[in-house]
Amino acid sequence: MNSPFAPTDLTDARDGALSEPLTLANARLVLPDTVLRGRITLVDGRIAAIEDGDGVPPGAVDCGGDYVMPGLVELHTDNLERHIEPRPEVGWPHLPALLAHDAELASTGITTVFDALRVGSIHTGKAGYGAYARNLANELLEARAAGHLKISHFLHLRAEICSETLLEEMAAFGPEDRVGIVSLMDHTPGQRQFRDLTSLKAYVAKKRGMNDIEFAEHVANLKQLHARYGAAHEKGAVAEARRYGAVLASHDDTTADQVEVSARNGVGFAEFPTTREAASACRAHGIAVMMGAPNLIRGGSHSGNVAARELAEAQLMQIVSSDYVPAALLLSAFQLADIWENLPMAVACVTRNPARAAGLEDRGSLETGLRGDLIRVRPAGKTPLLRGVWSRGERVA
């Protein structure tokens, strides 16, 4: 994870009020390298002690042998956008959407999220779209400052290289905005995720109701935008990430050459590489690979790209994102545990590894001194049942 970027003040941010002391006892504690039968105590929202044994001290919560593990860390989710626009062209009031999004993530065990917001708009063509990220970010930060949110929120700016207004939209953000991640998104037709125009057409036609002529015009417009702005937007987005103090991520790298460019840009982790070739190249450059939990759980990519399981079996992935299904993140950890026969290693993919990739050293692991973000899980066959969620020691689900 070789990024020169690091969030400037994110690790010291205090989320939520300090909680009462809490001890979870008679639990299977998922530590970084082992599973320990014991108890964990939180004081002032941080892990104060980890002890072995199955005893239950007075006042402690008896977990009855359930797993206790770190709260999940989500680096890339479209879930907030789904709440503010539940159907195409159907807007929803932002504060209720933010609260519903926050509560949904808490209910799935996610205690830290980097909310993905698109920057870069297109004002030409039928499939154009306008700017929204700055206003929504303001409302999110205000809700956080007011104490309305259950879990810890940061911003992830999805920089659309193939757009008209990327750099002016990014200029509206600064180091004070909790921008932890900037990902370079190049959705130009004919490459990366949309090498196959058939899958792009099916997606756009369903979402925007395009006919064949309109789709051809849409593709031509995007290619023209890339030719006009692509190089300047990529260079500018990298510079803006540095100005924010954010970690830089690539998106949908497909070839070793594309990974080489990502490495030169200082990318810290790769979101959803589409081929094994790209994932292997990431390993060679020390770039962590993130794959989608839906891909893993469904047994393959819905876009025909490389299967997450294939990369897992080849030890070519280190991070999992829920992507568009928040509840998939916890389930993916237990599926990886079956593949690797190593629960701590699997849990790290949804806790410690994403936290470290995003520059957060204060969470993601059961270690004394770290944030008291915990989840309690009871397996039901191969399905994990979430029995409790704590954010800085305060129960939120």
Automatic annotation (TrEMBL):
The keyword Hydrolase applies. It is an enzyme of class 3 (hydrolase). Its EC number is 3.6.1.63. One of its GO terms (biological process) is organic phosphonate catabolic process. InterPro entries: Metal-dep_hydrolase_composite (IPR011059), Metal_Hydrolase (IPR032466), Metallo-dep_Hydrolase (IPR051781), PhnM (IPR012696). Keywords: Hydrolase. One of its GO terms (molecular function) is hydrolase activity, acting on carbon-nitrogen (but not peptide) bonds. Transmembrane segments: none annotated. It comes from the Bacteria. The keyword Hydrolase applies. NCBIfam families: phosphono_phnM (TIGR02318), PRK15446.1-5 (NF011984), PRK15446.2-6 (NF011990). This is Alpha-D-ribose 1-methylphosphonate 5-triphosphate diphosphatase. The lineage of its organism: Bacteria, Pseudomonadati, Pseudomonadota, Alphaproteobacteria, Rhodobacterales.
